[in-house]
Amino acid sequence: xxxxxxxxxxxxxxxxxxxxxxxxxxxxxxxxxxxxxxxxxxxxxxxxxxxxxxxxxxxxxxxxxxxxxxxxxxxxxxxxxxxxxxxxxxxxxxxxxxxxxxxxxxxxxxxxxxxxxxxxxxxxxxxxxxxxxxxxxxxxxxxxxxxxxxxxxxxxxxxxxxxxxxxxxxxxxxxxxxxxxxxxxxxxxxxxxxxxxxxxxxxxxxxxxxxxxxxxxxxxxxxxxxxxxxxxxxxxxxxxxxxxxxxxxxxxxxxxxxxxxxxxxxxxxxxxxxxxxxxxxxxxxxxxxxxxxxxxxxxxxxxxxxxxxxxxxxxxxxxxxxxxxxxxxxxxxxxxxxxxxxxxxxxxxxxxxxxxxxxxxxxxxxxxxxxxxxxxxxxxxxxxxxxxxxxxxxxxxxxxxxxxxxxxxxxxxxxxxxx
Length: 419
Description:
Layout: E1 5-8, E2 14-19, E3 25-32, H1 46-53, H2 65-70, E4 74-79, E5 84-91, H3 95-108, H4 113-132, H5 139-147, H6 162-166, H7 170-180, E6 186-192, H8 196-207, E7 230-236, E8 242-248, H9 255-268, H10 274-282, E9 286-293, E10 301-308, H11 314-330, H12 335-352, H13 356-369, H14 374-383, H15 387-397, E11 404-410
Parallel strand pairs: 2-6, 7-11
Antiparallel strand pairs: 1-2, 3-5, 3-6, 4-5, 8-10, 8-11, 9-10
């Protein structure tokens, strides 16, 4: 049971405090309710670009890193399609340094052409290195566009194209900041060697006077149910043929999410999983194969991906996956198999919660989802999943009409008639 206190400042900033006297450290985590799904389709990549800009200094603090390092702290951030998260860990006696730094850049981030140009170049290089020049780097660009026709999950956090970042203007950046990076759209979580009273005092002192901003009300286009199998074939200079299959699944707060999570463990959770045992160990069709889900807030995807053994045809590999899925949908799994994946999931959750930083991060995300108490109740939702739910959900997810298949051929193996 993770204990925490929750309160809200007059400007709308939600604050959660998790006290843990067993550590000498404290984590200050600020989550902003904005991700790539909130971007203009013609200006994608802004949430991620902004993550970089947030480290460029504020009006009052030109250098974010130096005072934090002098206080013995470290920091980082990450952007998803759903939110942007910033976190600092430092010795508890220096906690106020983190409040000072985070509040000042929320209040008065420095906007300059120089900072924008520096961070723009960093993001553009990241785009080129990881998504243009890297083998298989364009897979998720293709796969998302294949699956999502309406929902903004159709582009990645890095953006849909390099030109959107190249053309970003200072006015665009400033507008983005004042729309999303406001107290009313943020969640502050403080975890570690602190108290609720201390955090209340510091939160009021450093964040209380920041203008609330206007609450962002999300109204995204929803994806229609899929009723036909979709396929795409591409080729590139990659070492091995690869096969990707994606299936729409339930949203993060729906019961179907927990069932789908357990299904991915049965299919692809390690060397004892069904796909590994059958398609790697027995049939020797793949050199590697995985099954996972995207874990997104809105309806996400169950994904099966694998690299083929040289000489194995794409059609043979695809048929073998379909055969395993057909087995899963044909008959209920055993109580033993379900208990195994439940126990594995429980262990993973417990292990993750051992870190005070992970606890802070999780509390922020659960609060974003609508209820921080999910931190303590989610395990019960996994335990409650039944064999019948597993069978029904597998039939719904892995229905061939719900499939999106990408054949990714190595340039040297594709035949001219497959162009």
